[in-house]
Amino acid sequence: MATDASPKYRTSDLHHSDISVSHDGLHFYQYMIAGSVAGSVEHMAMFPVDTLKTRMQVLTGSSYPTQTIGVRQAFGSILKLEGPAVFYRGVGAMGLGAGPAHAVYFSVYELCKQFLSPNNSVSHAVSGVFATVASDAVFTPMDMVKQRLQLKSSPYKGVGDCVKRVFLEEGAASFYRSYRTTVIMNAPFTAVYFATYEAAKRGLMEVSPESADDERLVVHASAGAVAGGLAAAITTPLDVAKTQLQCQGVCGCRRFSSSSIGNVVKTIVKKDGYHGLMRGWVPRMLFHAPAAAISWSTYESAKAFFEKLNSNQQ
User: Fold this and answer.
1) DSSP assignment, residue 278?
2) Cα(190)–Cα(192) distance, integer angstroms
3) Nearest by Cα to 188 from 122, 274, 129, 121
4) CA 54 to CA 46: how far, in whole Å?
5) How far apart are alpha carbons 173 and 234 in whole angstroms?
6) Where are the alpha helices (DSSP H) in the chain?
């Protein structure tokens, strides 16, 4: 979710969600706005892939046999039977959730970094985990609404109708039914992402150290793409459990006797086998790899805008 704001062009590059105001003169709220815009652009741009991933993770048997066919076939089936517009159903919920969630992420990340020392990759990773826990609390309700709207023959007319019906029919707690699973998924995702990002970045910079500053955008975007793809693949089983929890009982999706992760995973394995836990891993990787590059590029552009704005006001 996070993007790079490491001090411009220090040799000790930080992780790409470093947003310390002391480095390049931006106000705290400007980092929050930049992060919010970056997160919104990232998720909106990749939304069709997210829809495909959701379909492949939850639909079983009667709808699309996506657990037995590839991404191309699943995409073609949805496109032919429902049209291109269906890939953007639920994008409003994403728009409402992604911006505030990223703003919370960046603010919590920065606050945690101020209390942790030394300022290294470990403190960045710990700060990232705390930020993830907080931002997931904001994003989870809209993520649930989004995924229900993405389903084939979704019974909801839109975001407002979904929120109202879920609240009346299932209670307010249902909006956070998958929160624990989401946090447990995103914590290792963040750890894997940080470790892979730093390793990939160092490797890329060693290839051409003399042009590292000039190619900074390419280096960070490439490292982010590698890290995002790997972290997405590793945490796919938990993402499948989260998605099925959020969509249970809707459009033929199975129900679970308990929302505990162990019960959900055991049920999926019993019904679909172990391969059921990896359903949708390809579109999940195809989402997170370019999303990291998009998010970082957007964040840097927003930062550059605020830096120019601040310099003009001085």
Assistant:
1) G
2) 6
3) 129
4) 13
5) 29
6) 21-24, 28-45, 47-58, 71-82, 91-115, 121-150, 159-170, 179-207, 216-234, 236-247, 261-272, 281-313
Report the pLDDT value the prediction gives residue 16, as an integer from 0 to 100: 41
Could you tell me the maximum CA-CA distance found in the chain, to the nearest angstrom? Answer: 65
Half-sphere exposure of 236 (CA within 13 A, CB side): 27
Rounded-to-integer distance, Cα 273 and Cα 270, Å: 6
pLDDT per residue over 100-157, tens digit each? 998 888 778 777 877 887 767 677 778 888 888 999 999 999 999 999 999 988 999 9
Length of the chain: 314
Per-residue pLDDT of 214-260, as tens digits, reads 557 777 788 888 988 999 999 999 999 999 999 988 888 888 988 88
Q: Per-residue pLDDT for 6 more than 80?
A: no
Which phi-psi region, left, alpha or beta, contains residue 222 (left: φ > 0; alpha: ψ -120 to 50)? alpha
